[in-house]
Amino acid sequence: xKSLILTRSQLPFDLDLSFxxxxxxxxxxxxxxxxxVHNGHIVTIRQNDAQIDYDGITxxxxxxxxxxxxxxxxIIESIRNHIIAYSGTSDAFFEAKYEQSLGLRILRxxxxxxxxxxxxxxxxNVRTIGKRINLILGQYGxxxxxxxxxxxxxAVLSQCVEQDLRECLTGYRAPYLIKTAHYxxxxxxxxxxxxxxxxxQAKEALMILPGVGPKVADCVLLFAFERLxxxxxxxxxxxxxxxxxxDLIYSEKTGKLSYDTIGEFCRDYFGxxxxxxxxxxxxxxxMEKDGVTRSAGLP
DNA sequence: CGCCAGGCTGTAA
DNA sequence: TTACAGCATGGC
Length: 299
Hints:
This protein has 17 helices and 7 strands. With 299 residues, it is of the alpha+beta class. The strands form 2 sheets. Strands 1-5-4-3-2 form a 5-stranded antiparallel sheet. The structure holds a DNA duplex (13 and 12 nucleotides).
């Protein structure tokens, strides 16, 4: 394996937490090595304090993939400054969650792989989503070497039979995957166009795709397109916002908060790195334990 | 068994 | 614009 040493400015970094906090699916930890697909190919990564060992990926690619260039101190300072500007006080709840999430990075996933993952995520749980991704990889991934698969590209997924895809635990999401694969296959420059749009245009464009609503679009924008202001609002984030920040919102709004109301509040309150703030609030250390436990019995 | 899960689509008001 | 049923399935 190749290796790199994290610099002072890249620490702290927590690979286990970053891979276990619900932003990426299908990666397994065997012993101390994480293994999964990135940009179509099998990648292995291991962290030993400040040393990162890796294979199947270039140094430049892994630095980007793991978000190792993100200026975390600046990001936190920006978030804190926006909190103060909005509310006039510091935020003990956020600070506690951030303290529990030290070393967490927003990954830069391959857009297609991230899109498939989060179409599969609809109304499901983290563990099941990972199973779906690995079943799809096993069923439709094209072998390059023995025991290694390449992630199925849009052309492959667009041609698969719905009933077969449903056997990958995808259920009613199967036709969404096939239709979206077909669309991406017919519009090969779609992702490039999305990268050139502003956040709101990009979100609208992604929501053209079958199976992609506001939540999935925000996940793909945050976890694959580096839109660090994208705020995925799932049940958990909604409950956190409604319980911890209700007084800041309900002074203006009443009734059940809409998706966009919560998202816009987070962008106003946390600022342009609201996506990072969201992920600090979302992550918990028990998810990390789940990831290790899940892979403990693998061959 | 019943409820929940990183929701979306279609329809009705 | 908002409200809501229906959807498949595993986890717990």
